Amino acid sequence: MAFSEEQGGLGPVENNPEQTSGAWRLLIWAVLLVLAIASPSLSPSSWGGLVALWGWTPLLVGAAAAWTVIGFGGYREWRHHTDRLESIPIRIHVDGSRGKTGTCRLIGAALRANGLRVVVKTTGKMPVLIDASGNEKIIERPPTPTANLREQKDIVRLATEQHAQAIVVECMAVDPELRRASENTLIRATLAVITNVRRDHLEVIGPDIGTGARNLSDVIPPNGTVVTAEQRLLPALQDEAEKRHARVVTVDPETVSDALLESFPYITFKEN
User: Fold this and answer.
1) 64-72: which pairs have CB atoms within 8 A and are 24 or more residues apart?
2) Domain range spanning residue 140?
3) % of the chain beyond a pLDDT of 70
């Protein structure tokens, strides 16, 4: 992932020492892949010749060493990410059917107005990073059909480099398994926001809107807090929050006046 130079970008996020471990893992997997491709052309006698030449012990030790390096690299990367997360006291994960981007921006602006250093990341057709200084930068993505959840890890690292006290991250996963990975591993929110529950993406999170609400609830942190403007499916969200021993804070969009909406220089909605 990189940030647009035209927007005064910070340069590629991926330039860091952790690339070394990634390169080693790639090299090891390349060797294993070559062996897998070459294995059909090797007769049993050829494998027997290798065993006779080297013996089973070096082959087994080599395989064990390769997997040990892979496992150690993965643990090291996970440990670094966990340490970074724990250095950011406020982590807000925003999900819902609609209004996520606008809600992220408003939360970030409110935190910044109260003197906090906050990093905001929105996703969608034009993903944007708002850094701790309040500067906006377009996130450049490779020309692939879908975005990569690794972006979330990169944002956490960038936030720690900028000594952020809070991050506000829009959930970029639609698939339930990826949503759980995003929350449980990459963000580990201290507070979740579920804007609303609509019939969007029911082919993935459904089949019905009730199931969709329960899948969206996967961003609710255990023993944490979730804020929502959803009214119709609030009982489903409350049930899921109770399973996680989380507190539900409901907000009423009707308490937002029309005059306040009209004061914004852009179109926004009461739910946001």
Assistant:
1) 66/28, 66/31, 66/32, 69/24, 69/25, 69/28, 70/25, 70/28, 70/29
2) 89-262
3) 74
- pTM of the predicted model as reported, rounded to 2 decimal places: 0.73
- DSSP β-bridge partners for residue 2: 140
Question: 265 near 242, Cβ under 8 Å?
Answer: no
Provide the b/e sequence for 72-90 (b: ≥16 CB within 10 Å): ebeeeeeebbeebbeebee
pLDDT digits (tens, 9 = 90+) for 107-136: 999 999 999 999 999 986 788 999 999 999
Q: Which residues pair with 167 in a beta bridge?
A: 91, 119
The answer to whether residues 178 and 255 belong to one domain is: yes
Do 136 and 59 form a contact (C-beta atoms < 8 A)? no
- Spatial distance between the Cα atoms of 144 and 141, rounded to a whole number of angstroms: 8
pLDDT of residue 3: 42
Distances (CA, A) of 41 to 45, 59, 137, 204: 11, 19, 51, 42
Q: Is 66 a member of any domain?
A: yes
Residues 124 and 252 placed together within one structural domain of the fold: yes
Residue 123 neighbours by CB under 8 Å, 6+ apart: 100, 101, 147, 151, 170, 171, 172
Q: Indicate which CATH number applies to the domain containing 114.
A: 3.40.1190.10
Q: How many domains does the chain have?
A: 2
3 state SS of 137 = strand
Rg over CA atoms, the chain: 23
The strand pair at 128-130 and 118-122 is best described as: antiparallel
Query: Tokens 């082919």 belong to which residue?
Result: 203
How far apart CA 238 and CA 226 sit, in angstroms, is 9
